[in-house]
Fold this protein.
Amino acid sequence: MNYSLLFLATLAFTVSCSKVHEVEKNMNEMKSSTELMSTTTDLMKETTTVMYQQIRSKEAEDTRDKKFTMLKSKDEDFGSKIAAAAVYFKSFEYQLWSDQVQFDDNKTREELILDGVNEFTRRASDLYSKLKTNKMSPVNSGKKHNDEMAFYALAATMHMNHHFQEELVEKRPQIKLLSFYDIVKEALRKDSLGMTLNENEEILVSGINKEIMIELIKARVDMIAALALKNLTDKREMNLGQKIKAAIFKITAGKLGAIDIPEVFTTANESTKNQIIKYLESSLKARRFLASISLEKNLEKTLLSAFEHIQITKSEQEQEAAGAEIKEKDIEIKKLIDELIE
């Protein structure tokens, strides 16, 4: 027997086994490394998710705190309060809900809405306790009426949505776009019909909260109508007689005198007219909603008097003499005003 050949064969087999063992060892090490990397990746994803939620909550809360402070500040004028209130509503965390299965499912959205409702009702309650709603008017201004202006600012901006939510809904039509105004209206609607309410809806219509939500919508009718009136008229053009009538109106609480502000509609551009229509329609929608739950809302008396004295269209004789025609938007605005003051 050739011992040399046997020795070589044995040596080759030994080396081969050693290499196979080494390959298996390397593969096992690679598997362990892959599993470790997978675990590490999962942990990183989980950590990132937690950090994202924490950062989102903190940033949103900080923004709301800052904007609500501006809203209540006596050093901020009404325009600044409107802007602050708009951002406040956009900064509710449910507005930033992402519909991610891992951490932002439908249950999470409901929880975020509930958080928003709890926060808003507490803050609104504090503000509301300082008001006399039967004496409020959107034409009042100054530090004396600071709380009223804050309430009107909230009422006028309840419909605002963050662009993040709008873009999400555009990409995923199955998701319902929800403003805080939508949430409040749905709670009041279901309550009026005796329907079963979810947790956030029950909070909105419980005790004094229901009264506050209704008064907010009533204030919305007046405030948005006042924005339309601002574009329709110019109080800088008031003559002495009109100023005297306005002063008498204010002194007698509307029993005498009148609010007769010169209209500047005839010189307004198309953009201004479009904005007026938008405001009037929004005010009317709020009043129609109140009517749908059996609540009546008439315009605040100062606004009512001002709208009653607006002459959008001239008589047929005046138009013929001027060679003018009634424009389509003029007619639309006139109809909206007529409905608002009826």
Summary: The chain is about 70% helix and 0% strand. The two ends are 122 Å apart (CA to CA).
